[in-house]
């Protein structure tokens, strides 16, 4: 992967992104884990997460997402709307089968590095980004949403970072992305309680920007958001965003391999495996009730 393309013409040196020297290789073209639809008239790209049934985030999905982000940077799209093509779920977060039972070190490290990479590409994208949260967005699903610049959400779904209740501490770059969206005390409360908020609650505290009732409305609101930048030179907009987000980006860029190692150690601890295992079992059992 050519990381220097990631932050084009930007003041964040691309050498920082080369730290792990990982390469993009489309892993799953046949599975079509990400669908991309570019509207030639408006220049807006609609990117749909498409890993049925609940868009759990796997290594292959992260790799494909990074490839798509590279393509959109190359195409110089006017804006991106990120949504789901699964019914009722935006994304159910990290694929728990990547974490349990006892993943191999090699697979987990690759998984985590591509998760980081996806976040870096989304958080630092030169084009404006909207998350259309058209379903539940717990944990890693919420991370995707808060990494975009603007959030629209359908009613009656849940969003939040529910790591703490299952004994897990969200990593610092995730906390930083939340802090960038919510005023400090609300961000801390959301993280420490691990509560999933319904759409109205999420709107009331500012986690999402607008509630929309259907996809048509979401596309119209996205268009309005993108139009606010029509008279701003693209490069100035991109650099302003990237410099504004630079501290958050640097926190991860400087610590990528230690962040991966730290989470590998955490995930492989027998206590953590036990917690994740019983959480996963409870998810499966819920269906039987
Ligand atoms: C828990 C360990 C976390 C370890 C994290 C480590 C570090 C944290 C650091 C950084 C922060 C960012 C990372 C966050 C961590 C995560 O994202 S972990 C994943 C957390 N996700 C959840 O808690 C959501 C779990 N899912 C649900 O609540 C529901 O599935 C849903 C999304 C609300 C949808 O409900 P619905 O009724 O429509 O569907 P089902 O529940 O029947 O699910 C269908 C099918 O899919 C399986 N499944 C659901 N979610 C996941 C998942 N995340 N990974 C793998 N598989 C999943 C579910 O078990 C069903 O399977 P089936 O019974 O075999 O059909």
Automatic annotation (TrEMBL):
GO MF terms held by the record: delta(3)-delta(2)-enoyl-CoA isomerase activity
InterPro entries to which the protein is assigned, alphabetical: ClpP/crotonase-like_dom_sf, Enoyl-CoA_hydra/iso
Subcellular location: Mitochondrion matrix
Source taxon at top rank: Eukaryota
GO terms under biological process: fatty acid beta-oxidation
Coiled-coil positions: none
Reactions performed catalytically: (2E)-tetradecenoyl-CoA = (3Z)-tetradecenoyl-CoA; (3Z)-decenoyl-CoA = (2E)-decenoyl-CoA; (3Z)-dodecenoyl-CoA = (2E)-dodecenoyl-CoA; (3Z)-octenoyl-CoA = (2E)-octenoyl-CoA
UniProtKB keywords: Acetylation, Fatty acid metabolism, Isomerase, Lipid metabolism, Mitochondrion, Transit peptide
GO cellular component, one term: mitochondrial matrix
Keyword set includes Isomerase: yes
Self-association and partners: Homotrimer.
Protein purpose: Key enzyme of fatty acid beta-oxidation. Able to isomerize both 3-cis (3Z) and 3-trans (3E) double bonds into the 2-trans (2E) form in a range of enoyl-CoA species, with a preference for (3Z)-enoyl-CoAs over (3E)-enoyl-CoAs. The catalytic efficiency of this enzyme is not affected by the fatty acyl chain length.
Protein name (record): Enoyl-CoA delta isomerase 1, mitochondrial
Protein's organism: Chironomus riparius
């Amino acid at each position: 992967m050519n990381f220097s393309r990631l932050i084009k013409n930007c003041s964040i040196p691309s050498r920082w992104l080369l730290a792990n020297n990982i390469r993009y290789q489309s892993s799953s073209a046949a599975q079509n884990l990400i669908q991309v639809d570019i509207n030639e008239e408006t220049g807006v790209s609609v990117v749909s997460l498409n890993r049925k049934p609940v868009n759990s985030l796997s290594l292959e999905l992260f790799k494909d997402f990074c490839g798509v982000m590279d393509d959109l940077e190359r195409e110089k799209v006017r804006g991106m709307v990120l949504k789901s093509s699964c019914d009722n779920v935006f994304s159910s977060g990290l694929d728990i089968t990547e974490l349990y039972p006892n993943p191999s070190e090699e697979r987990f490290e690759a998984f985590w590095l591509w998760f980081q990479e996806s976040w870096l590409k989304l958080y630092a994208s030169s084009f404006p980004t909207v998350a259309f949260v058209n379903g539940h967005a717990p944990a890693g699903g919420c991370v995707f949403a808060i990494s975009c610049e603007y959030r629209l959400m359908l009613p009656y779904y849940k969003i939040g970072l529910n790591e703490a209740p299952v004994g897990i501490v969200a990593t610092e770059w995730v906390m930083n992305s939340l802090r960038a969206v919510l005023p400090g005390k609300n961000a801390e409360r959301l993280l420490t309680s691990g509560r999933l908020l319904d759409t109205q609650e999420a709107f009331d505290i500012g986690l999402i920007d607008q509630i929309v009732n259907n996809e048509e409305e979401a596309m119209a609101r996205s268009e309005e958001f993108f139009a606010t930048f029509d008279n701003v030179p693209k490069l100035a907009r991109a650099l302003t965003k990237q410099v504004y987000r630079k501290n958050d980006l640097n926190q991860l860029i400087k610590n990528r391999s230690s962040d991966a190692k730290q989470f590998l150690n955490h995930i492989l601890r027998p206590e953590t495996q036990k917690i994740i295992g019983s959480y996963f079992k409870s998810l499966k059992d819920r269906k039987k009730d």
